């Protein structure tokens, strides 16, 4: 099997797969939050190592995927301005807006640059004083501290030609929306280890108690994920609903308090629309009034209409774990990485992209 051939700790991972089979006496459905975990699960065939009654479903753990279409349209409009150098992570360039994507704007001559860190945008702004530099700030709590550092340093340096289009979102409110839905199937969660590295996991304790679901903070290696599933199944079998920390080598209960302090200094919490899921209260980050001069929506007041998603795209149901990518009629036919109907097919953390790239190989 592909897993055995390619994973260096296959023996340890298979140990946990066997342990899960030994303790599982009921069917259980567990959602992993992180798109990186989704890719590990599908790439290494982790789901195929599990007993048939243990089902893994994929949550809204791809920040590119949940960025609403009007934010994409706003990014496209700003990036099309001749005075602007638009900086973005590479994932965002292929995400479809209402009509085109950022890659199309770049092909038509727009100055769009792929960056690997928010601080790259600061260097570009310093090197191009006659241009307006805009950074597309997308991500969960994991990347928000680096964005906050960009704003802090730009403010300290008195930068006048740098602004940000901020679309950061927060994980716990989305988990609560999923658990509040009458259609949800989730009986336990694997929480994203990198998010908890920054934020800790104290906030998850109230969710576990309120909705009576076990939540296991989990890493990204296959052995991490299988151990996370084991701990989650063990709680389910015992009727428990607690927060456990599988990723103790990187995560503390209180998280990275220095990073949190910087985030709180730069950002305030606001409602935010999620693609395919609608508006979620207290689920987004926005620049505080103190740093409003770095807000690209104020520097470039472009009116954008809210646009409906493609009627063919089931990304909303996929992001909530109600549907699997292969259950979408358009999957791998009318929706491919070359011609995507939605963001989950083009993001490096998208569930549809994971199924498209890895599932056929693993089925061989």
Overview of the molecule:
The protein has helices at 2-6, 10-23, 35-43, 46-49, 63-66, 69-79, 102-107, 118-127, 144-156, 171-180, 193-199, 202-211, 222-237, 257-266, 296-299, 315-319, 351-363; strands at 28-32, 54-58, 84-88, 111-114, 132-139, 162-168, 188-192, 215-218, 243-245, 267-274, 278-287. The radius of gyration is 21 Å and the shape is globular. Helix 3 (35-43) runs parallel beside helix 17 (351-363) and helix 10 (171-180) runs parallel beside helix 12 (202-211). It folds into 2 domains: 1-312, Rossmann fold; 315-363, no CATH class. Strand 10 (267-274) and strand 11 (278-287) form a beta hairpin. It has a 5-stranded parallel beta sheet. By secondary structure, the chain is an alpha/beta fold. It contains 17 helices and 11 strands.
């Amino acid at each position: 099997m592909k897993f055995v051939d390619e994973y260096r700790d296959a023996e340890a991972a298979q140990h946990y797969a066997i342990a899960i089979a030994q303790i599982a006496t009921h069917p259980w459905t567990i959602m992993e939050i992180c798109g990186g975990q989704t890719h590990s699960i599908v790439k290494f065939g982790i789901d195929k190592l599990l007993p048939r009654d243990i089902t893994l479903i994929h949550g809204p753990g791809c920040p590119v995927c949940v960025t609403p279409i009007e934010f994409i349209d706003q990014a496209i409009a700003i990036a099309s301005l001749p005075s602007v150098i638009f900086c973005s992570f590479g994932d965002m360039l292929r995400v479809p807006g209402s009509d085109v994507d950022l890659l199309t704007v770049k092909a038509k001559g727009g100055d769009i640059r792929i960056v690997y860190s928010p601080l790259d945008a600061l260097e570009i702004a310093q090197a191009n004083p006659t241009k307006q530099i805009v950074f597309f700030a997308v991500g969960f709590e994991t990347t928000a501290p680096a964005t906050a550092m960009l704003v802090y340093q730009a403010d300290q340096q008195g930068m006048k030609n740098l602004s940000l289009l901020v679309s950061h979102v927060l994980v716990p409110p989305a988990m609560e929306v999923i658990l509040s839905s009458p259609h949800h199937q989730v009986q336990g969660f694997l929480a994203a280890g990198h998010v908890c590295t920054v934020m800790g996991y104290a906030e998850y304790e109230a969710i576990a108690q309120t909705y009576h679901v076990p939540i296991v903070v989990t890493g990204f290696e296959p052995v991490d994920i299988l151990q996370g599933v084991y701990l989650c199944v063990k709680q389910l079998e015992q009727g428990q609903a607690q927060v456990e920390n599988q990723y103790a080598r990187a995560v503390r209960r209180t998280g990275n308090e220095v990073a949190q302090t910087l985030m709180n200094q730069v950002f305030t919490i606001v409602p935010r629309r999620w693609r395919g899921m609608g508006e979620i209260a207290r689920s987004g980050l926005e620049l505080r009034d103190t740093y409003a001069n770095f807000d690209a929506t104020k520097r470039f007041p472009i009116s954008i209409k809210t646009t409906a998603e493609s009627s063919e795209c089931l990304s909303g149901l996929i992001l909530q774990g109600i549907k699997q990518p292969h259950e979408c009629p358009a999957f791998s036919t009318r929706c491919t990485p070359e011609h995507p109907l939605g963001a989950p097919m083009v993001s490096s953390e998208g569930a549809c992209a994971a199924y498209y790239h890895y599932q056929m190989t693993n089925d061989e």
